[in-house]
Amino acid sequence: KFKNIKTSKIKIEVGKSRKGKNRYIIGFLISLYNNEIVESKRSLLVICHGFSDSKETLQYYYIPLALQGHTILVYDARGTGESKKAGRRSQFLKRIDDFKKVIEWIKKEDQLKNYDVTSIGFSIGAITVLCGGFSDDYIKKIIAISAMSNYKQNLPKYNPIIMLSYLLKGVKLFPNKVENDKLSPYSIIEYSKQSLSEDVWRKFSKRVFLIHAKNDKIINFKNFQENV
Description:
Hydrolase_4; alpha/beta; single chain; 7-stranded mixed β-sheet; Rossmann fold
């Protein structure tokens, strides 16, 4: 579609099956052909999509950023698109682990390891980048769009269509406390605030940018207020 943009497919190992076969998530690296512009930016944007999305559905968002010279790493989360065999879509905790493995993969890639990394997540992807990336200062910026604060409390219980979809796809609606804390940005952020020095906390929190629509019908705006 865009003659001045190149796309290469990547696969990142995220675990093994019961039979010992490697499991991979599949993604794209997207950038301009003009290496001079790309190298002047030295910016890598890691895109994490929402529950019902795939790496392709967010093209409207990341293609304009690639045209500005940013390098884009976008991948299908486990259970979606080309990463269907990596696991189930409903494995949100493992999605966070997968994100951490993507960041570790970047750190070892000669082409990318010295780029400034920004992680951008939408909905469940926003939980992923906050819970999986807040404590990793290798990530220069975290942009969370429509993030829940407390996972268990803010599942859209009063939207029967969404809840039915979650049930049919095996989403865990009643996690235990340990699981809920790992899936709740508010808990992750509060724990960091208590355990880090004030200077380090300020440095970490300044990297985070929260975006939320006041009229969000699925993830209520109060989540934004709680995370702030």
